[in-house]
Design goal:
This is MBT domain-containing protein 1. It contains eight helices and 24 strands. With 427 residues, the chain is of the alpha+beta class. The protein starts with 12 loop residues before the first strand and ends in a 15-residue tail after the last helix.
Length: 427
């Protein structure tokens, strides 16, 4: 709804069910938006002036909220709330006076809501997606369910359909069939004799387009050093190395000091990805850089490390430096995916902003579970998104649920097979 939200502001009037009456049928009254919070609005019935006693929160996108004039065209009665019924004898004149020049919802608002909840990905479509147990490769998965644009993907070989992976349809982790072969990415073939007749390849135009890059001149090279968000521990930005240069601007990256000899824990980021940074990014922005595991010369100094390793830093000019005018501020609340267990959407708070990078804190959890997420990530949602789409929202953690899981999660925190799957919250 982002593109249609410009008409929604404080003072906008709507027609809503009147719950302050004792009539047997559903009747409506006019209310004004007092305050907005994501998709939710604090509403006050017209005629209550400065009395906030009956103010109520409501998701503006639900079917019961209508533009002013809807009752008249639908033959529904407008009945003033019982609490203020005595204030005026001529309510019609009161409304005419109050509503002249007032703003309301666009007439096609409910149509826009339903259009924004139509998703091009459908069950039975096949895609290539990161293998959550081996980040270095992709596998074929089949769309099983779509909720609010979030896809439950089941890996093709999973006979009981339990080996799944959740991501948004605009996630950089999913690709059309054939993508891995085209760019030279590792791929695990399905051990099934033939694909099910009902399954079909998702059309390539459905996938998010990556930024085109010019790799013919000066470009990333194998062995160059950089800083990267660790996909196995999204609270950390680490010392990293380009391990392989693929086609179309894609790079295989490894975290220094914790790589498997066979490259099975390399991971793929696009050159324009907001999750990779030039050497010195953390120092300039006063972020703690995670040094290579086992590296003894602390505090870590890039200059010394590059000299010791006989390596060079990736040129600064090759990184994506675009910063959208995103409008996020520290302390804002939102609903955010726990990317370490991406079937979960949780109550969260923005605690830091570095250019386009947001530090997401999950309410009720320790800071060690925070995640660095891009401002344009498809895994961040306005307050009220879960209610609107029918997705379950994980409330802030209580002390007891934290205690029961913290002991097991601490050991699992960096276990390499734990990619994107449970280590903290039980849904």
């Amino acid at each position: 709804m982002g593109t249609c939200w410009g008409d929604i502001s404080e003072g906008v009037r709507v027609e809503v069910p009147n719950t302050d009456c004792n009539l047997p049928t559903k009747v409506f009254w006019i209310a004004g938006i007092v305050k907005l919070a994501g998709y939710n609005a604090l509403l006050r019935y017209e005629g209550f002036e400065n009395d906030s006693n009956l103010d109520f929160w409501c998701n503006i996108c639900v079917p019961d909220i209508h533009p002013v004039g809807w009752c008249a065209t639908s033959g529904k009665p407008l009945v003033p709330p019982r609490t203020i019924h005595h204030k005026y004898t001529n309510w019609k004149a009161f409304l005419v006076k109050r509503l002249t020049g007032a703003k309301t919802l666009p007439p096609d608002f409910s149509q826009k809501v339903s259009e924004s909840m139509q998703y091009p990905f459908k069950p039975s479509m096949r895609v290539e997606v990161v293998d959550k147990t081996h980040l270095c490769r992709t596998r074929v998965a089949v769309v099983d369910n779509v909720i609010g644009g979030r896809l439950r993907l089941v890996y093709e070989e999973s006979e009981d359909k339990t080996d799944d992976f959740w991501c948004h349809m605009y996630s950089p982790l999913i690709h059309p069939i054939g993508w891995s072969r085209n760019i030279g990415h590792r791929f695990k073939r399905s051990d099934i004799a033939k694909k099910q007749d009902s399954h079909y390849d998702a059309p390539p135009h459905l996938f998010v387009k990556v930024k085109e890059v010019e790799s013919s001149g000066e470009w990333f090279k194998e062995g160059m050093k950089l800083e990267a968000i660790d996909p196995l521990n999204l609270s950390a930005i680490c010392v990293a190395t380009i391990r392989k240069v693929l086609a179309d601007g894609y790079l295989m990256i490894g975290i220094d000091g914790s790589e498997a000899a066979d490259g099975s824990d390399w991971f793929c980021y696009h050159a324009a990805s907001p999750s990779i940074f030039p050497v010195g990014f953390c120092e300039i922005n006063m972020i703690e850089l995670t040094p290579p595991r086992g590296y003894a010369k602390l505090p870590f100094k890039w200059f010394d490390y590059l000299r010791e390793m006989g390596s060079v830093a990736a040129p600064v000019k090759l990184f994506n430096k675009e910063v959208p005018n995103h409008g996020f501020h520290v302390a804002m609340k939102l609903e955010a995916v726990d990317l370490m267990e991406p079937r979960l959407v949780c109550v969260a708070t923005i605690t830091r902003i570095i250019h386009r990078l947001l530090r997401i804190h999950f309410d009720g959890w320790e800071d060690e579970y925070d995640q660095w997420v891009d401002c344009e990530s498809p895994d961040l949602y306005p307050v009220g998104w879960c209610q609107l789409t029918g997705y379950q929202l994980q409330p802030p953690a209580s002390q007891s649920s934290r205690d029961s899981q913290s002991s097991s999660s601490k050991q699992k925190k960096k276990s390499k097979s734990q990619q994107y799957k449970g280590h903290k919250k039980s849904g």
